[in-house]
Amino acid sequence: MEFKDSKTYANLHAAFAGESQAWAKYSFFSKKAKKDGYQQIANIFDETARNESAHAKIWFEYIVNGIKETGENLKAAQEGEHYEWTEMYAQFAKEAKEEGFTEIAKKFELVAAIEKSHDERYGKLLANVQDGKVFARNEGAVWVCLNCGHIYTGTTPPVICPVCKHPQAYFEIQAKNY
């Protein structure tokens, strides 16, 4: 029997979905408990959410046969986001309108627009990985260390941060949106 045709494979999908939903749900519950003044309960919801996340990862790794390299993950993420905004949410909005749920239809449309931006962002990030431009620019850029805040100007950030010794992976182009 092919693994993908097995009941076990279907069960892995169900387990992944259940654990992922529990992870999200408990994260929401934690925020509410904290807002309501119950820090201990919020902490317990957070701890349980982390546990559920770990369980979801176990089942996901079986489903996809291990987490792939970043380029493949970006491609998969882009494909998923593209499906969500071009097909899934478009269909959901259409059906909600037909059933008279106009507020929900509008939310589906608004979220579809967000998913489109995710699709585009993952596409650009994938191109940067494929073209070797994650840590290199043709023109000088301002790079910032995400650990200590060190600022460096140049075409590539330092291999090692001269301040905190974190690797180049901790640098990103500084964005000023203020």
UniProtKB/TrEMBL annotation:
Its cofactor is Fe(3+). SUPFAM superfamilies: Ferritin-like, Rubredoxin-like. GO terms for molecular function: iron ion binding; oxidoreductase activity. InterPro entries: Ferritin-like, Ferritin-like_diiron, Ferritin-like_SF, Rr_diiron-bd_dom, Rubredoxin-like_dom, Rubrerythrin, RUBY_RBDX. Residues 140-174 form the Rubredoxin-like domain. Coiled coil: none annotated. Keywords: Electron transport, Iron, Metal-binding, Transport. Gene3D superfamilies: 1.20.1260.10, 2.20.28.10. Residues 2-133 form the Ferritin-like diiron domain. PANTHER family: RUBRERYTHRIN-RELATED. This is Rubrerythrin family protein.
